[in-house]
């Protein structure tokens, strides 16, 4: 009898549950499959998904911070260590010095007696054209400084002996400038120590002079010279 009562109660409970589910599904339009998914749902997956989502959100936040606040880069003379003038870059301490009297000259009539329509206007004794650049053409006593000699003249820059002059003897040198105004405003006449960078062999070509002026390490200073 007890067994029959248990079976009867189980059947009634089963029928009640079935009737309840049928009522719920008909009212809420939820299927038995949806109910089954709810029953089989494991909360641990929700926790795992939430953790993954939280981690992903945190990663995105870090990426956003890196994007919004990138490392700042500055290019200025205040942050880059290095020489700021041609004289600082020349490392002159290792070169011998000698005292000279330096004057300025131009390619014009006032210095050479040649006008711009002269076929040899601006042509130096060495055959190269006068030039004011990183390495400028200068005149000297060729018995002291042969053609091709490179001097560093403080306040002027590198000078390459390319010319001579009747008044340029002994410890005198003449520095090329574009105009007479430049000679007076930028130089005049000075007595100073010059540095002997290289003693010339008596020759100088346009190609050699051009190669000197294209020295990569000195290009940053080129504007200082050509616009002075």
Helical amount: 25-40%
Low-confidence stretches: 44-50, 62-80
Strand content: 15-25%
Overall pLDDT: 79
- By CATH, the superfamily of the largest domain comes out as RlpA-like domain
From the alpha-carbon coordinates, what is the Rg to the nearest angstrom? 45 Å
Which strand order do you get reading across the main beta sheet? 1-5-2-4-3-6
Order of helices and strands: HHHHEHEEEEHEHH
Q: Determine the structural class based on helices, strands and strand pairing.
A: alpha/beta
| Number of structural domains | 2
The number of helices is: 8
Protein name: 3D domain-containing protein
Organism: Oceanobacillus kapialis
InterPro entries: 3D_dom, Resuscitation_pf_RpfB, RlpA-like_sf
Domain 3D: 136-197
Notable features of this structure?
single chain; 228 residues; alpha/beta; Barwin-like endoglucanases; 6-stranded mixed beta barrel; rod-shaped
Description:
This protein has two domains: 2-68, no CATH class; 86-226, RlpA-like domain (Barwin-like endoglucanases), CATH 2.40.40. Strand 3 and strand 4 form a beta hairpin. The radius of gyration is 45 Å and the shape is rod-shaped. It has 228 residues and is of the alpha/beta class. The chain has eight helices and six strands, in the order ααααβαββββαβαα. The protein has a six-stranded mixed beta barrel with strand order 1-5-2-4-3-6. Mean pLDDT is 79; it is low at 44-50 and 62-80. Residues 136-197 form the 3D domain. Keywords: Signal. It comes from Oceanobacillus kapialis. Pfam families: 3D. This is 3D domain-containing protein.
């Amino acid at each position: 009898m007890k067994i029959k009562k248990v079976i009867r109660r189980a059947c009634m409970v089963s029928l009640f549950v079935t009737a309840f589910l049928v009522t719920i599904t008909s009212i809420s339009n939820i299927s038995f499959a949806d109910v089954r998914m709810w029953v089989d749902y494991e909360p641990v997956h929700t926790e795992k998904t939430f953790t993954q989502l939280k981690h992903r959100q945190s990663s995105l936040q870090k990426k956003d911070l890196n994007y919004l606040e990138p490392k700042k880069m500055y290019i200025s003379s205040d942050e880059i260590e290095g020489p700021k003038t041609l004289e600082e870059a020349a490392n002159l301490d290792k070169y011998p010095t000698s005292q000279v009297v330096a004057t300025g000259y131009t390619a014009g009539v006032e210095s050479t007696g040649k006008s711009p329509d002269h076929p040899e206007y601006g042509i130096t004794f060495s055959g190269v054209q006068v030039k004011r650049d990183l390495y400028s053409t200068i005149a000297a006593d060729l018995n002291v400084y042969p053609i091709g000699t490179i001097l560093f003249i403080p306040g002027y820059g590198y000078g390459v002996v390319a010319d001579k002059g009747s008044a340029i003897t002994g410890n005198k040198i003449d520095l090329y400038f574009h105009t007479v105004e430049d000679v007076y405003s930028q130089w005049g006449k000075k007595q100073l120590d010059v540095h002997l960078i290289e003693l010339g062999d008596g020759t100088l070509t346009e190609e050699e002079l051009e190669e000197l002026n294209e020295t990569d390490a000195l290009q940053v200073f080129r504007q200082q010279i050509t616009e002075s």
